[in-house]
Amino acid sequence: MPIRQLPIELANQIAAGEVVERPASVVKELVENSLDAGADQLVIDVENGGIKRIRIRDNGCGISKDELALALSRHATSKIASLDDLEAIQSLGFRGEALASISSVSRLRLTSKPAQQSEAWQAWTAGRDMAVQIEPAAHPDGTSIDIQDIFFNTPARRKFLRTEKTEFAHIDETLKRIALSRFDVDITLNHQGKRVRHYPRVKATDENSQRRRVAKVCGAGFADSALAISANAEPYQLSGWIAPAEACRHQADIQYCFVNGRMMKDKLLSHAIRQAYERYLLPERVPTYVLYFCLPPQQVDVNVHPAKHEVRFHQQRQVHDFIMQAVANALSQQPQQSADQTPP
Ligand code: ADP
Ligand code: MG
User: Which residues form the DNA mismatch repair protein S5 domain (predicted)?
Assistant: First the structure.
C-alpha cells in the first residue's frame, strides 16, 4: 500500500483509542477539564450507564465563541505553551486531545459562556472532516458538554462496552476519585434523572468535615477508624488517612493515592505502602488508604501514560523511602500512643 495521510477523523479515532476506553474515561477527561477551568460545582447526568448519554455542567471560566472550534481540534490546549511548561505541569490536562478524541467517537455538543461574554454559544462537529458548526445558545456562566451515543461510529469499540450497570459503576468510581481529590468542589451525579451521589463542598482546613466526605466515598467503617497521616520531609509531603492494620480490608477497593492532586495507580508507591504495612498486616488483608503525596512538579514526570495513571519519579529511592517511613511511623505510633497514655 502507498503511504498516505490519514483522514483527520480517523486520526482522531485512533488517538481516542488511547484515552477513551469507556464512558467513565469520558467522564474523567471532562471533569478534569472542568477542574482545570476553575469550576467548583459539577453536575454530571448519565443515561444508560453513560452509553446513551453523559452530560456535564460546570461553573468554570468557559470557552469564548472564537475558541470553541479550537477546543474541539486536536493538539489544541490552553494549558501549556512550551516544553518548560510541561516540565512544571500544574493542570490535569495538557495533551489537547480529549475533546477531539471524544468528538470523533460520539455525538458531542459543547455549550459555553465565559462571564465576560454576553451570550452563550454552542459547537459540535458533524461530518467526516471534523468541521465545527457554531450557533447561539442559552447557558449560564460556565460550560456544558453533552455526549451521546459513545462509539456509535466505531462498532469494534462499542462491542467492548459492558452492561449499563458495570459502565455506571466505573463512572461512580471515577467520581469517587475526583471527590477525594477535590474537597473544595461540589459534585452531583445523576443517573436516569435521579440523584445518586452528592458530595457537598468541604473546607480544606476542617479535618472533621473532610472525614465526612471520606465516609461518603469509602464508607464510615474506614473513615471512623482511619489514622490521619501528616508527614513532611522537604521537599516531600504526605497526608491523608490509613486504616490501622486490624481494620484493613480484604478487598483492594480502598487504595487511593494522589500525586500532586492526580489519582495514580503507581507501583512504586503501592510497594512502599505495602512494605510499611508488612509486619502488621493480618493474613489476606490488604493495605487500605487514602493518601496524598506532594512533591515539586519538576521531580515527577506525568507524561508517561496517555491516561496519566502512571508517573515517573526522578528520585525513586528517596520517594519510596519517604512514603514507607511516613506510613510505618503512623502505624507504629498507633499502639505506642495508647501506651504513652498509661503512666510508667
Ligand atoms: P487539554 O485538557 O489537554 O488542554 P482538551 O481536549 O481536554 O485538552 O481540552 C481542550 C481545551 O478546551 C482546554 O485546553 C481548555 O482550554 C478548553 N476546555 C475544555 N473543557 C473546558 C471546560 N469545561 N471549561 C473551560 N475550558 C475548557
Ligand atoms: Mg482535557
Answer: 214-332
